[in-house]
Design a protein that fits this description.
The protein is an alpha+beta fold and 69 residues long. The protein has helices spanning 30-41, 51-58; strands spanning 6-8, 15-17. The protein has a single domain, classed as 2-Layer Sandwich (Erythroid Transcription Factor GATA-1, Chain A), CATH 3.30.50.10. The chain has two helices and two strands; from the N terminus they run ββαα. The mean pLDDT is 84. One of its GO terms (molecular function) is zinc ion binding.
Length: 69
């Protein structure tokens, strides 16, 4: 039988067995999972995006409505 794959916890670097028994994977614990979630919620983590691409993507959404008199 082969050895189960092991990954590092993204929060604390503890080795974590990648199996169904590891319910918090890839994290070592619920605590590390919540620490990571908090970092995303407080914008410590972010997916890099070019400001120009984002501006083009949403520029049509920001047009002011026409007001008729």
């Amino acid at each position: 039988m082969s050895q189960p794959m092991t990954v590092q916890c993204p929060t604390c670097d503890t080795p974590v067995e990648w199996s169904a028994a590891s319910t918090s994977r890839p994290f070592c614990s619920e605590r590390c999972k919540l620490i990571d979630l908090g970092a995303w919620a407080s914008e410590e983590h972010a997916i890099p995006v070019s400001p120009d691409a984002e501006d083009e993507m949403f520029s049509g959404d920001l047009e002011a409505p026409h007001r008729g008199h």
